[in-house]
Amino acid sequence: MKNKFYTYIQNLQDQICKGLEAIDGSTKFREDIWERPEGGGGRTRVIENGAVFEKGGVNISAVHGKLPDTMQKMFGVGEADFFACGLSLVIHPKSPMVPTVHANWRYFEMYDENGNIINQWFGGGQDLTPYYLFEEDAKHFHQTCKTACDKHNPEFYPNYKKKCDEYFWNAHRNEARGIGGLFFDYLKETENMSMEDWYNFVTEVGNSFLQAYVPIVERRKDLPYTEAQRTWQEIRRGRYVEFNLVHDKGTLFGLKTNGRIESVLMSLPPHVQWVYDHHPEVGSEEEKLIKVLQHPKDWF
Hints:
Layout: H1 2-24, E1 30-35, E2 40-48, E3 53-66, H2 69-75, E4 81-93, E5 100-111, E6 117-129, H3 135-150, H4 156-167, E7 169-170, E8 175-176, E9 180-187, H5 195-207, H6 209-220, H7 227-246, H8 249-256, H9 261-264, H10 285-294
Antiparallel strand pairs: 1-2, 2-3, 3-4, 4-5, 5-6, 6-9, 7-8
Helix pairs in contact: 1-6, 3-6
């Protein structure tokens, strides 16, 4: 399974990078191959200063070795070996009319002293972080997520949509990071779902990513915007940074397993503002977004 999924994310990385390069039209992803001293490594691809995308990364990694002490405590196990692979992406567009997007699909195995698998699971999801709320875009993104889920189980979308709303919650701000999507973790074998079934589900979601995001970019990338709207985008990006550095499990996992720091922190946008005690104008489009972020909604 680990070889099968790693091959999948290698191909998915190629597909996503080609799709995003095509819509940007002015620049390409830069690639870095890196190795982890304790075992494994990855392939980082970063796009910067494009016509559409200001900064973004589409990264894959496969790491293995002894499970670090911090992770042993998290999982409630003693010494063990592990393998983890995944694709993680964050795209920050230049225009405040185009939403930031994040996605991740991953697979994890843990082994006993004889090398036998004692635990394995999938995780991942995809979510959207707009700066201006276009309900048409929100519905499109969520409908694409729902369509992928419904092919496998009609309960998956409402369940994983709810988990996404709960996970991407900036508790110290009492607001969501964005308008959500899907979030799932610890997808393990059950009576109803084999690991092969979970593989089929996770790859279905992965394959839906470009269809979920690219049509939104195409609709919004050429809209005019003001300097004030750009400032709002940078203030909201500050909330994105706060979530990633305070709450995000993927960031913490990368830091605690001696992941490549440049790849772990590639999710951070290049231009951000923290304005003291900032509040949007009453009745404004900015306030409209905040109200939705404070009370996550169902889109259909």
